[in-house]
Design brief:
91 residues; mainly alpha; 0% strand; rod-shaped
Length: 91
C-alpha cells in the first residue's frame, strides 16, 4: 500500500510538468503566429506606400513617415484583435 501511494505522489509533479510544457508550446505557437501576421502586414504596407511615392526626397520622407505611422497603428489594432481571439478560444 505504501508503494502505490509513493507512485501517485511522484506522478502528480510529472503530470503538472507536462501540462506546463504543453501550455508553453501553445503560447509560443500563438506568439509566432501573431508575429507572422505583423510581419506580413508591415511588409505589405511598406511596399504599397513605397511604390506609390512621388515627389523626390520630400515624397520619400513623407512616405516613410506615413509608413511608420500606419504600421504602428495597425500593429496596435491587430494585437488587440489577436489577443481577444486567443482569449475567446481559451489560449
Amino acid at each position: 500500500m505504501q508503494y502505490q501511494d509513493f507512485n501517485i505522489v511522484l506522478a502528480i509533479p510529472q503530470r503538472r510538468a507536462q501540462d506546463v510544457d504543453r501550455a508553453a508550446m501553445i503560447d509560443r505557437q500563438a506568439k509566432v503566429g501573431a508575429a507572422l501576421v505583423f510581419g506580413v502586414a508591415v511588409g505589405l504596407i511598406a511596399g504599397f506606400l513605397g511604390l506609390r511615392t512621388t515627389g523626390g526626397a520630400a515624397g520619400v520622407g513623407k512616405a516613410a513617415n506615413d509608413t511608420v505611422t500606419l504600421t504602428v497603428v495597425l500593429i496596435l489594432v491587430a494585437d488587440y484583435f489577436i489577443s481577444m481571439a486567443l482569449l475567446s478560444w481559451g489560449l
